[in-house]
UniProtKB/TrEMBL annotation:
Primary site of residence: membrane
InterPro entries: AAA+_ATPase, ABC1_TM_dom, ABC1_TM_sf, ABC_transporter-like_ATP-bd, ABC_transporter-like_CS, P-loop_NTPase, Type_1_exporter
Full protein name: ABC transporter ATP-binding protein/permease
Gene3D superfamilies associated with the record: ABC transporter type 1, transmembrane domain (1.20.1560.10), P-loop containing nucleotide triphosphate hydrolases (3.40.50.300)
Organism from which the protein derives: Candidatus Allofournierella merdipullorum
Amino acid sequence: MKQVLSQLKQYKKPTFQCILMAALEVIMEILLPFVTARIVDEGLEAANISAVYRYGAIMVVLAFLGLAFGAAAGKFASTAAAGLSANLRQGLYDTIQTFSFSNIDKFSVPGLVTRMTTDVTNIQNAFMMIIRIAVRAPLMFIFSFAMCIYISPKLSATFLIAVVFLVVVLGSITVVTLRIFDKVFHKYDELNASVQENVSAIRVVKAFVREDYENEKFARASENIRKMFVKAEGLLAFNNPAMMTAVYFCIIMVSWLGAQFIVAGDLSTGDLTSLFSYIMSLLMSLMMLSMVVVMISISLASIHRVGEVLRETPDLAEPKDPVTVIPDGSIDFDHVNFSYKHGSGKNALSDIDLHIRSGETIGVIGGTGSGKSSLVNLICRLYDVDEGCVKVGGLDVRRYDMEALRDQVAVVLQKNTLFSGTILENLRWGDPNATEAECVEACKAACADEFIDRMPDGYNTRIERGGNNVSGGQKQRLCIARALLKKPKVLILDDSTSAVDTATDAKIRAAFEKKIPGTTKIIIAQRISSVEHADRILVLDNGRINGFDTHENLLKSNAIYQEIYESQVKGGGDFDQPA
């Protein structure tokens, strides 16, 4: 709760203004029945028309003041609640931006989306209700009961029976519904995951004709949520009958006992009239409190989930005195052990001892799950090692400012991503200040100019969300061009030419030799032809170094490399290259 409320920031003032206006509104409403009693006793029964006018004018003023205070409270409540939700979303988004991959893996993407949408909306609605009704209802209860005691202490004891009854019933309902709502939001994560998977993989779903299966899966997830909400709302439906039972009990008791007190001269007709008003105010305040408790019950699960993200400490922390200049592209792995879940004992990389000179071209090859991507993720510090250290430019990567490190270590990841916008806007992710001429030059080096020139708007052609209007190979080449614009000390290509033909792949590698000769290049590939011309080739197997030498020497001495080479070259060649 503290973590969430800290996001109020500039909206603290409207919050306190709302509380003040709600309190003044209650005072105006409490005074109305009291004035009504004076009209009956001093005006109507005494046949004093001037008293009726006088007290009537006071009632009109009180009613207008109550209306004004209520409207102001509503305005301030909306401002504060909407501001809190905006700050929460911004705070969540800013926090997520600092997360490492391991932090995001911990929550899952659908879980983070639910927290930023459904959970924040629940908190917004609950906060608006709390600062209005949670202030209004207790004050209304206290003042109404105080006025009842002032008018007739004996009759007031009757109300306590109804209050105890309502507290027991409403409290029991609230405790049960709280447990149900806590489970509902975990089901929301599953529903969002189903939607996200289907939307992002819609081509696969249609290609395998799995629409019916996915529809049934979504329907089951949605039905689970519906059943839980029906169960919770079914229990909450008992609030109203319990409330009406208490109201009718009080009305009957006050009517019966009040008539006797009037006959005995212990109570006036006006006081009895005002008592009926205070009874309704008192019991309605309890009803409102039960609604607040239910709303808080719903939001507590959301508050906990949002708080989890805000409290999460990023696994990767900036050093106290960060180094911002990387002298060269040399890379050293000193006996590195790494696992995605620290302390699990399941290493993705084990005892990696590797030394790469600045400007070298290094090929990395190995089977699926051998640790190729894990290795390069450590160079740009997307993860931290468990043991040992990774050095770039002779210095541990944990000593560098992360922004400076990643500016000089350009990565074209296995999953290439383009964003909505023009080709130029996507390229300038690499360098926001790059000129159009520099973008064209980078595209030539990545062989992307070939297809860009054929597009109707050239470099101003709009890329649809996720790059859906370009092919896999075109997307890869644009991502390579984007990385080249960074003019990095180290360039990592993580299987990023897998969707281009071998002729284009060769052109890209030749362009690298001319355009960025001093840059250290690490090329992860599945094809021998993509790495055989590298200065040295690293062979990984099950997270360990199996070989590190030139193409010729590995063919003589390394069994894994020989097997890959024979299966690709002697077995028929690459997919678009003659044997």
